[in-house]
Design a protein that fits this description.
Layout lengths: L1 E4 L5 E4 L6 E5 L6 E6 L5 E6 L3 E6 L5 E5 L5 E6 L5 E6 L4 E5 L5 E5 L6 E6 L5 E6 L3 E6 L5 E6 L2 E6 L5 E6 L4 E5 L5 E4 L6 E6 L5 E6 L4 E5 L1
Antiparallel strand pairs: 1-2, 2-3, 4-5, 5-6, 6-7, 8-9, 9-10, 10-11, 12-13, 13-14, 14-15, 16-17, 17-18, 18-19, 20-21, 21-22
């Protein structure tokens, strides 16, 4: 099953094999900017321009609303254990939520402008966020402190499987690989427009990137 979010304010669930529509989830009052599946696969979190995050049960269609951002929500991710959700907003904050209670666990301040990209580390103890003012930040989930700041105008972001490298899709049409410890970087070139999404293979030997140039590239690392 695949989930999609749309400017028509809905979340739709699709059958992968047949391409048929399984369910339409209504509730948002503005465009849906981001979607994330829970690791267990029975819940979906959606981020909307209506300033809310909604958590949906894929079987029943029931949802809870996470309310706290003061502007539209652009990015969303589930923690590896499925117990937490992190969201990034136009209000410049990153919020972590408890999935079961719907309560806000903490709010991270530091960005100045829309938080376009958000990701948990595979171990769940770090969060990475990107925003329009040209910074990428790495946060400690336990201490709620900012551990690193990289000066980079990025959109999509992903941790490597070992959590030692951050892959960032950039507005300058490149993919940047940041070593978190040394803060050195490597640049992958080839796209012709901004790169909005990046994802590692399970082994970390390859990286996929999606771009506004209408291509997906697979990189050997």
């Amino acid at each position: 099953m695949i989930a999609s979010g749309s400017w028509d304010k809905t979340v739709r669930l699709w059958d992968v094999e047949t391409g048929s529509l399984l369910r339409t989830l209504d509730g948002h009052t503005d465009s849906v900017n981001g979607i994330a599946y829970s690791p267990q696969g029975y819940r979906i979190a959606s981020a909307s321009q209506d300033r809310t995050v909604r958590v949906w049960d894929t079987t029943t269609g029931a949802c809870i609303t996470l309310d706290g951002h003061s502007k539209g929500v652009w990015s969303i991710a589930y923690s590896p254990d499925g117990k937490r959700i992190v969201s990034g907003s136009e209000d410049g904050t990153v919020r972590q939520w408890d999935v079961d209670t719907g309560g806000c666990v903490f709010v991270l301040h530091g960005h100045n402008g829309t938080v376009y990209g958000i990701a948990y580390s595979p171990q769940g103890n770090r969060i990475a966020s990107t925003n329009y003012n040209g910074t990428v930040r790495v946060w400690d989930v336990d201490t709620v402190e900012c551990l690193s700041v990289f000066r980079h105008l990025a959109w999509g972001v992903a941790f490597s499987p070992k959590s030692n490298v951050l892959a960032c899709g950039s507005f300058d049409a490149t993919v940047r690989l940041w070593n978190i410890e040394s803060e050195s970087s490597r640049t992958l070139t080839g796209h012709r427009d901004q790169v909005s999404s990046v994802v590692y293979s399970p082994t970390g030997n390859q990286l996929a990137s999606g771009s506004y140039d209408k291509t997906v590239r697979i990189w050997d690392l």
